[in-house]
Structure formats: structure tokens, C-alpha cells
Amino acid sequence: MEKVREKVNLRVFYPFILFLIFGLEGCGSEASEKTYRPESVTTNSQMKLFGEEEAILTAPPLVPPPVGNRPAKKLYMEMEIIEKEAEMADGVTYMYWTFGGSVPGSFIRTRVGDLVEFKIKNHPDNKLPHNIDLHAVTGQGGGAEASFVAPGQEKTFSFKVINPGLYVYHCATAPVGMHVANGMYGLILVEPAGGLPPVDKEFYVMQGDFYTEGKYGQTGLQPFSMQKAIDENPDYVVFNGSVNGLSGDNAITAKVGESIRIFFGNGGPNLASSFHVIGEIFDKVYVEGGSQTNTNVQTTLVPAGGSAILEFVADVPSNLVLVDHSIFRAFNKGALGILAVSGEENPAVFAGEIMEGIYQPEGSVIQTMPQSEMELTAPKDLSQEEQIAAGKKLYMQACFACHQTDGQGVPNAFPPLADADYLNADPERAIDVLLNGLSGEITVNGKNYNSIMPAQQLTNEEVANVLTYVYHSWGNIGTVISPEMVKSRRK
Amino acid sequence: MKALALLVLFSMQAMGLHAQYEDMVSIEGGAYAPLYGSSAELVGVNGFYIDAEPVTHADFLNFVKEYPEWRKSGVKRLFADERYLQLWENDLEIPETLKNSPVVQVSWFAAKAYCDCQGKRLPTVDEWEYVAMASATQKDAREDSLFTLSILSSYEKPKTYLMEVGLQEQNAWGIHDLHGLVWEWTQDFNSIILTGESRNNGNTDLGLFCASGALGANDLMNYAAFMRYAMRSSLKARYSLTNLGFRCASDLSPDSN
């Protein structure tokens, strides 16, 4: 009886004990009990629409007008996918795949809460299916599956933008890397309610890396190199689609004192960008294109498939140079753009050169050159026999694998050098081929060859020697090539 | 079935079938590793016959003369979309320059009907891929980097549908133009689904995704194949595309007819 009674008592007390425990916890951490609900879910996804309009899309470096104070609306937009040949650098063209005919693709500007009805059209002359993955979209693949469209077809899909920020969009059709590498990316901006603070000038700049069969600057239509893309070894790293995409006639301009905002994106496919403007400091950076801002930034890191919004005021007149501060990309691969700022000098900010003079350090100055350098630059005059001997040695290292020991080449793949009309017709052309490489169809001794010979990294002497050897072998015309001739063919 | 057989018989007589069969190539059966699935699992391909060249506009004109229901103005929208034979001037007139070019802007239904009416059929994906591995010199040239490079670059070349058939070098089987001119319909083009979301490693394209991951970076052939599979999976049977034609295949030997 005693025991039963005890149990009953405990039963009566249980609720009180429970109450005590919960009560105590409740006092300590009331917030942790609530599940995390971000604003995108609680407010933006529920946002009411007031009217509808046709969205304005722009090609770089322009951006559509700001959203300002307008309410969330239903936005209609159309984008056409066009595969087209365009200039990559002077004398170099590339088959770009584009959203809206430009690289990067058309700039899309929305505000948070907008409902977008997006029509994607794949031009009938295109050879491949495409689609679009917008990083601003919450949903399956960023719209990738819903927008998968065959050539000559169009598709419409719809999404609500619920997170403010600057987002990349790109094609996501297999092989994804190739579609991105051919230029299929752009930016979509989702402004917060009330819009971004107004500025005087806004620009759209996007970086991308390109992979071509020929090396940087090799002229002609350059096909995409899948191997280089896999190796992440680009020939071109450029702003707005080409080496001249943001310089020369395409340079952007501003006046002294204007506030400037750059919407900067990085399409990749592979490289991250160390974006920097030479001669300017970013007053404000929206880090990674999100809501957090940093101030007084020299260089901002922008990942592939990421973005940043940069704001500054051009204080003095000059050509500001936009670069990827992984600096060989800027000076050797094309990642260089110009923002020309015109107006009155402002000596209070930048006084320029004030004085020049001769610098005389203390102590003795070293007068002798290092020994090894002397040896390297010593000129050598080779006799014809010596040239041929040296050339033969080099041929057996660099050339024989394709052109074979006896100069016969490989049928259907590598053209012969032995008694070769193409070779003998034009020694200057032969020099050019070694210096710049050669691709595309040629006819040698009546047979067509369509393959690629890479440019050879040889000195003038080496080119002269190996060509002299080739010209003195296998029934060729016996021309002697001098280092000077080679030098004159270098541009 | 009877009706179909009759139709086939009728068409054989009507169209001078023997002439058509003469242009077929006999393919020895074998096994190959398709893009999907693990490379350890080879897929068997039985011996078959396949047209040496894609069907041309002129060939297709002969067909629609015989079968009005497949003319530009007569075709049912269910079986071909609005772009069907858009390049043609009218029902029975084709631009002179396109006569010997591969017929394009034909739906799968139309392509299938064309082959059926000759007692043939469309090739399967496996058959098509099996013969498309061949370069001019090798029946399986997938490791020949120059061959794969030339395929990849041809996919980037615009307006190749305007070229004439039969001018490119034939492959080791004696077949022309599998690469370089137009995409081609296959009987089961939609049986392997590369979803619109090409990076999704769940569900239907698991095999594709994994296969691509498992293969070495050097296997560029697979990028070409990927593009073909992506292309096929974007299609519906009524689509009529400017870069898509077809050729026919058959189980029967040309001699047996």
C-alpha cells in the first residue's frame, strides 16, 4: 500500500516537475526556441505585386535604369541564345555562345519580390541545346531544367526573386564547362526595396577565361580547346568577352567628381579574379555581391560564378586601368580595361611629379656583370655545316615525333617535310610556322592536312638551325636560314 | 501489322527500293562502351545495315511526292511542328542549292515514316554511336585525339546543314557524314534522358554523370558524345530542327530484297 501511494504522489507531481524544467529554460534562451526564418521567406516570398512591365535588358557595359522606389511587379523578359563568331583579339576570332548576342549576356535588373516571367529562345541556326541557371533563383537548378531548350525552340518559366544581391547566371547544359567557357554567362541584379543608393554612373563588367587551340594572339578563327580548359590553362583572360572588350573604343568614361558603381561578375569557368582598379581605391564594396559592405578596399577577390558591387568617386582625371591583379593575366592574357576619367586636375588629391634629381647611393657601385650572363649573350657565328649539325640535333628533339626521322610525316595527320612543295615554296612562311604555329587546312604535295602545329619556343638561332637542316635534307631546296631572317619575322 | 506489311510491300514497289538499298553499308556486330553506365559494361550491337549517306532534300522530295500526308502543307501538327520543311519553297519544290544537302527540319515521325516506307527503320542510339566511333582509318578511333578534336570543332561550325552529303571522307565502315553536317534522329533518341539539369547526380542521369566523372580527362570523345546526348534529350518527336536530319538502317541485307 505504501508503495502504491508513493507512485500516485509522484504522478501528481510530474506536471510540476516538467513545468519547472521548461520554465527554467524559457527564461534563459527564449530566442533559440524559434526556428530561423530569414526575411526572404517571411516577407519577400509573400510580397504582393503591383502591376506588370516589360523588363529592359542591356548589353555590357550598360545597365538598365535603377528600380528606384517602384513596388514589386510582374516582369516579362526575353533572351535569345545566339551562337556567333566574333573578335577575341586583333585578328583573332572565336565562336562565342551568347545570351542575347553579347559576352557577358544581357544585364537583368529586378527588385526583391518581383515575379519574373522569363522566355528563353534558342535561335534555329544554333547547333546545340542550351538552358539558363540563374543564381538569383530559388528552385530546381536555378531554372536549368525548366529552361532546357532545343535549337529553334523557346521556353517560358517563372520565378520570384526573394534574395537581394548581384548574381551570376550561366548555361548549365552538358558539357557545362564548355558552355560557360564559350561565354554563356551574365549578371542579374536584385535590388533591395527602395533600390540601391543613386550614383552618377553605373557599369557592367564581367571577367571570363577562354581556351583556344592556338596560343594567345595566334590569328584566325580559334577553336575551343577542351584539353586546356580541363588543365585550367587559359590563353585569354578578358573583361567583357574580348581583349578589346573594355579598352580602345570600348573604354568606359566618367567625369571627375562623378560617383561610379561597377557591377562586376566573374563567369569563369575556372579562374577566380583579384579585381583591382589601378589608381583608385574602392570606397565601398558589396562583398561577394551580397548585403555586407566593406570600405576602403584595394583589391577584391571575386570567385568564379560570383560577383561584387564596387563604388568609388573618380577624384582626379586619368585613365583608370581595370585589371585582374593576378597580373600576368592583365598584361599577357588580356584582363585589362580602361575607365577614362576627364575633367579638372585636383592637385590637392594628386599633385603629380614635383621634382626630379640624380640618386647617388653611398658606398661603391658594382661594375662587373655576372659571369653566366656574359656567356649567355655571347654571339656565335656558325658555319653552314655547324648549323646543319645543330639543327639535326634539335630536329630529333622537337620535330621528329610528328614529322618523322626521314621527314615523311604521318599520312592524314602530319604533313611531310621531305621534298615538300609547301615548305619549299616560301621559306619566310616556314619561319612563321615555327614562330607562330599553324592550324587549319593546308595542301602538301597534293594531299590535304587539317591539324594543329603549336608554336615552338625556340631562339632565333635554333629556328635558323633547324630550318637550315630541314632545307638541306630529303631533296629540299637547300636554303640557308640565318638568325637575322628569323628575327625579322618576329613581330 | 497487316496493313503495315502491305504498306511496306507497296512502297517497296513504288519507290524502286533496290536502288535505295544499294547505298547501304553492312555493319559487323560487336560491343562497345556507351557514354552512360560503367565502362566495364559493354553493350552488344547486332549486325545491321545502314545508309552510307544521310537522306537528302531530293530523296525526301521523292518521298513526299508519294505520300501527300507528309507534305509541308499536309502534315498534321501533332507529328511535326511549324518549322517542318521551312526551307522548302512549297510542297514539292526545294531550293536548287539544297538538293544534295541533308534533309533537315523533319520530325522524328516524318523520318520514321520515310524509313518505314522503304522497309527500313531508324538506327538505334547504340547502333548510331557504334558506327560513329570510326575515323577514316579505324573502327574505334575514340583514342585518336585528332579525330575527336575534329568532331568537337565541327559541332561549333555554323551552317553545316548547307553542305552537300558524301563529300567528306568516308569512315572505316564506308559511311559518310556521321559527323560534320547535321545531327541525326535515332529510333530511341529519348530513351536515355540527360535531364535539362546536367549537373544533377540523382535520378535519371546518374549513369551519365558518374561515367563522365570516372573517365580520364583525356577522354575528349566523351565531350563530343555528351553534346550528342544533350542534344537528343532536348528533343521531342514533333520537333523539326534546322540542324537535324536522319538516315535509315535495316536488319535485312540489301540482297535479301
From TrEMBL, chain A:
Organism per entry: Cyclobacterium jeungdonense
In alphabetical order, the GO MF annotations are:
nitrite reductase (NO-forming) activity
Q: Sorted alphabetically, which NCBIfam families does this protein's record hold?
A: Cu_nitrite_red
* InterPro entries with a match to the protein in the record: Cu-oxidase-like_N, Cupredoxin, Cyt_c-like_dom, Cyt_c-like_dom_sf, Cytochrome_c-type_DH, NO2-reductase_Cu
Taxonomically, which superkingdom? Bacteria
Q: What is its EC number?
A: 1.7.2.1
Name any one Pfam family assigned in the record.
Answer: Cytochrom_C
> Per the record, what are the reactions this protein catalyses?
nitric oxide + Fe(III)-[cytochrome c] + H2O = Fe(II)-[cytochrome c] + nitrite + 2 H(+)
SUPFAM superfamilies tied to this protein: Cupredoxins, Cytochrome c
Q: Name its co-factor(s).
A: Cu(+); Cu(2+)
Name used for this protein in its record: Copper-containing nitrite reductase
Query: What is said about its interaction partners and assembly?
Result: Homotrimer.
UniProtKB/TrEMBL annotation, chain B:
How far does the signal peptide extend, from start to end residue? 1-19
The record's section on Pfam families has:
FGE-sulfatase
PANTHER family from the xrefs? FORMYLGLYCINE-GENERATING ENZYME (PTHR23150:SF19), SULFATASE MODIFYING FACTOR 1, 2 (PTHR23150)
- Record-linked Gene3D superfamilies: paralog of FGE (formylglycine-generating enzyme) (3.90.1580.10)
Domain Sulfatase-modifying factor enzyme-like stretches:
22-249
**SUPFAM superfamilies from the UniProt entry:** C-type lectin-like (SSF56436)
Q: What is this protein called?
A: Formylglycine-generating enzyme family protein
Q: Which UniProt keywords apply?
A: Signal
Q: Which InterPro entries match?
A: CTDL_fold, Sulfatase_Mod_Factor_Kinase, SUMF_dom, SUMF_sf
